[in-house]
Amino acid sequence: MSLSMYQASIPVFVRMFGNLSAILDKAAAYADAKKIDPAVLLNARLAPDMHPLTRQVQIASDAVKGCAARLAGVEIPSYADTESSFAELQARIQKTVDFLKGFSPAQIDGSEGREVVLKFPGAEMKFTGQDYLQHFVLPNFYFHVTTAYAILRHNGLAIGKMDYLGGV
């Protein structure tokens, strides 16, 4: 049995956002217990030229909502990047997961050969749906989720690989 485009995308995104949500819950509790201003963690970065935690979550959200919409051939919802608290990041994740769960396998499956064009200032990238998912979205998504995890771990949050992987 082969893996469908739906199976390789939507359930993966939903699962990892569930894991990230649980990590963010732990981060909020950690900040409260240690009397750390949550903004310290929300604005933390691994390096001066990297995005802070809040932006990592926003980019992960943008990557997957864009992917699902492009593969299904529907309009990508626009979310304002205004989150400034753990509660607002959780709401962003939930809104993204709700959007993802609105897709049926029939809307995503068969998109392997669909042309996906990403336009950037001064550049354009063209993919097949399958290459877009496998070689652009999944690595990008995992990069930002992993970076969010690493920022919090670096700042003392007691989390480990099983928090990242979730229940297996």
Order of helices and strands: HHHHHEEHH
Report the uncertain regions. none
The helicity comes to 55-70%
The CATH superfamily label reads dinb family like domain
CATH class: Mainly Alpha
Number of domains: 1
Structural class: mainly alpha
E-strand count: 2
**Rg, Å, rounded:** 16 Å
Helix count, DSSP H or I runs of 4 or more residues: 7
InterPro entries: DinB/YfiT-like, DUF1993
Organism: Aquipseudomonas campi
Protein name: DUF1993 family protein
Pfam families: DUF1993 (PF09351)
Which descriptors apply to this entry?
168 residues; Four Helix Bundle (Hemerythrin (Met), subunit A); two-stranded antiparallel ribbon; 7 helices; 2 strands; globular
Summarize it:
With 168 residues, the protein is mainly alpha-helical.
Description:
The chain is mainly α and 168 residues long. It has one domain (10-165): Four Helix Bundle (Hemerythrin (Met), subunit A). 60% of the residues lie in helices and 7% in strands. The chain contains 7 helices and 2 strands. The chain has a two-stranded antiparallel ribbon. Strand 1 (115-120) and strand 2 form a beta hairpin. Helix 1 runs parallel beside helix 6. The longest helix is centred in the C-terminal third of the chain and has 26 residues, at 129-154. The relative contact order is 0.21. The mean pLDDT is 97. InterPro entries: DinB/YfiT-like, DUF1993. This is DUF1993 family protein.
Write the layout of secondary structure elements.
Blueprint: H1 10-33, H2 38-42, H3 53-72, H4 86-101, H5 105-108, E1 115-120, E2 123-128, H6 129-154, H7 161-165
Antiparallel strand pairs: 1-2
Helix pairs in contact: 1-4, 1-6, 3-4, 3-6
